[in-house]
Structure formats: C-alpha cells, structure tokens
Amino acid sequence: MTAFNDLMAYQRQTSALGQIAGRLGWDQETVMPRGAAPQRAEEMAAIEAVLHARRSDPRVAEWLESAYATSEADKAQLREIRREYDRAVKVPSDLATAIARLTSEAQGKWAQARANEDVAAFLPVLEEVVALKREEGSALAQGGDIYDAMVEDYEPHTAGAQIAEIFDQMRPRLVALRAAVLDRPEPAALTGSFDELTQMRLTQKLAVAFGYDLNNGRVDKAVHPFSSGSGLDVRITTRTSETDPFNCFYSTIHEVGHAAYEQGIDPAYLLTPLGRGVSMGVHESQSRIYENQLGRSRAFTGWLFDQMKEAFGDFGIADADAFYATVNRVHNGYIRTEADEVQYNLHIMLRFDLERALMAGDLQVGDLEAAWNDRFAADFGYAVDKPSNGCLQDVHWSVGLFGYFPTYSLGNVYAGCLNQALQKAVPELDTQLAKGDTSDATGWLRENVQQFGGLYAPREIIKRASGVEPGPEPLLVYLEQKFGGLYEL
C-alpha cells in the first residue's frame, strides 16, 4: 500500500493547490481591484505552472504502476488520477501556463467590452484564446476530434456527436412547444422597483432554504453568477437588478445547487479526485433541478410569493397562482441565464454549434458576431439588439471553457431523469415545498447523487439514482406537462 498512500498524499497536496487557484479566480470575479488584472494574470500563470508540473510528474506514473486498490473507492481514485495524468502529460507546460495567463487577462477584457458594448475590443484576445485552446485540443486529441477532447474535460466519456444526437432529439419538440406557448396569452411580467439590499437579504434566506451551509460558504455578487470551491469552502455569487429580482433569486438557487453538490460529497474524499463533482453535466443536474423542478414549482413559488410580499410589500402580482405564471412566463429574450425552461436549451444548442465550428476551424473569430446574430435570428425569430445580449453575454469563451456549454443541457436531461424518480420517492414533496421546506428533496439528491462525488461515471450515477438510462424523454414530458398546464394547451 506504500505506493498508493504516497500517491494519495501527493494528490491531496495538488488538490489543495488547485483550491488556492480557484480562490484566486473567485477573488478576481468578486472583489479584486480592476487595476490588479495584469498581476493576477501572472499569479494565475505561476500557480498553473506548478499544478501542471505536479499533474504530469513522472512519479505519478511510477506510483500508478505500483499502486493497487483494496476498495471500490480506491479503484475509482486510481482511475481518476490516471485519467488526469494521461491528459496532463499530453499538454506542454508552457502551453498550459500561457493559457492560464491569457484567459485571466481575457476575462477582464471581456467584462470591459461587455460593459462598453464593444465586440471589436474583445475579438483580438478571443482569437488568441481560441488559437491556444485549439493547440491544447490538438495535443489532447492526438489526431482525433479536437472538440471531443475539449468536452472530455467537462463530461468524461461523451463525444460531440453523441451530444448532437441528443440535441437533435430535443429540438423538434422544444420548438413545437415554444410555438404553441407563444401563441397563447402571455402572463403578466414583474414590474416595479425592488431594493437590491433587500434582494440580497432574501437571497441569503433562499440559499439556506435549499440547504446551503453558510458556515462553509458565502454569497457575494459578480457580473456572471458562479460557484467556486469544494469540500469545506464552497462559495457562490449572484447578481442583482433593481427591476428584476428573479435574476437574483434564481441565480442564487441555481448556484446553491452546485454548491450543495460539493458540500454534500462524502468528507472521506476531501482533497482527492473523488472529492468533487464527477462532471459538469451532473453538476448542472443539481443546479437545474434545484432552480427549476423545485424552485419554479407551483408549491415552492407559493411560498416565495409570501416571502416577496413580506420583503417588498405589494409588488403588483395578485396571488400565488398569478405569481407562479409570472415566474414561469415564456417570453422573447436574449439572455441564456434568464431564459425560461422551454427556450433555455435552444440557447445552449446555438452555443454548442458555434463553439464546435470554432474548434474545427470552420468558423473564424472575426465572423463570430455575425454568425451568432444570424443563428439567433433564425432560431428565435428576432434580431440581437446589442452585443451584451449577443455574443458578449457569457464569460465562458473568454476563460477558455470550450466544451462546457453542452453540459448545461445535459444537466437538464439528467435533471429530468432525477426529477421523475424524486417525485416517486418523496410523495409529500409539494406539501413540503409549499412551506419552503426542501429538506426531503435535497436530502434525496444528497443520498443518491451528491455524496458519491466522483466515485461513479456521469451517466452511471444518474442511472443508479433515477433507475433509467439517461435520455431526454423525461425532461421533454415534464416540460410539455408543466407548460401545457400553465398555458392551457
């Protein structure tokens, strides 16, 4: 067992350093002074150089050769370490360092370009990011498909063609449902002014209601909401808008889903490869089921309606039924993170096709804005009005997260499967949610998904939890039933 123990001790140190790098990223998006960006880029590059050297250290290969496992968890630890090592040794250290430095710089330039509605200011650095990521993808793919190599970072054992097949199954029914819904009278939108400090107080209450442990976390504000960290330090961010408190509340519930996954992992896996979410698709299954199937349910929105009346007074919505319709209102819009459940996946399909073309070299960065705008008009039926509502709205490409976007829709697919099983497992769910009590629902998810961390492969953990082979049918049935009822189709 000496080789195994030595390997795990080394791995825990590497994981601890990775957590420090993640904390630097959290700081950059929340409280770092803007003028610190050039120095932070050097700091990120320096720590990435150390991490890459550790991940590709020849001793890891030697330990893997000698180590043997005596339990299912130990076998999974070796499997994940080997997977990470095999990928790390394919990427030159100077390339990994250059990507870390550049994406740190690019993130700040993206935020500034987005604020100024200036695509031209962002495209040069994005072109550099795409070039370096294609180089990394080529190194990882070793003659195979570059985009598949990118997806492997976020959804192991899943290829672009598999994702495209799932999306092809989903698109016709989503488009038909959207057309039917948009042909019906639209529920009232939320209007008025909502104090942003009051929003943040209520959002803390929502975080706790969904099981977020603030002893090991915190809620801050960022341009683009995200969750960061694992184990004993898991932080989330949200954002506020004076005219749209739903943005704040549902961003928070979404990010709490991510954070709860990390906080719910078996403590025995702390700072090991199993001590983090197994994939971004499974991660998104947690954030999306928290946000949508639980947070936007008729039962929970009834409780939220009362909370908002208490916080803001009369805000123009007559009753809980009208509030439920407003929360789930299907309407034209540009922003992915604000999209309703019917249209959300169509936003992801757009990004999936564009980034896949970028990685294949079929789309040039200079043509990205026009390609985005053309595709958006074709898919949604109206024109993008400004870059922050178009190709500048998401942070992902600026930080090099190519292959990440499709995991959002995979997460919706997985959430559909989990929700089907959850409804059977917790028959009193609606009664509990109507009181703001999510404990049985989140407890079921913790027991059946979250505690395992990286122990099982992504599709395996969803199948074990839901009892079905992961596929889009449960999600599509859920959407058709929910919105068919809401819009009397």
Automatic annotation (TrEMBL):
Active-site feature positions: 255
On cofactor binding, the record's note says: Binds 1 zinc ion per subunit.
Reactions catalysed, semicolon-separated, are:
Release of a C-terminal amino acid with broad specificity, except for -Pro
Q: Which UniProt keywords apply?
A: Carboxypeptidase, Hydrolase, Metal-binding, Metalloprotease, Protease, Zinc
Q: Which GO terms describe its molecular function?
A: metal ion binding; metallocarboxypeptidase activity
Checking Pfam families in the record gives: Peptidase_M32
A Gene Ontology BP annotation from the UniProt entry: proteolysis
Q: Where does Zn(2+) bind?
A: 254, 258, 284
Q: Which cofactor does it need?
A: Zn(2+)
**What Enzyme Commission number(s) does the record list for this chain?**
3.4.17.19
Q: Which Gene3D superfamilies match?
A: 1.10.1370.30
Q: Does the keyword Metal-binding apply?
A: yes
Q: Which InterPro entries match?
A: Peptidase_M32_Taq
Biological role: Broad specificity carboxypetidase that releases amino acids sequentially from the C-terminus, including neutral, aromatic, polar and basic residues.
**What family does the database annotate?**
Belongs to the peptidase M32 family.
Task: Identify this protein by name.
Answer: Metal-dependent carboxypeptidase
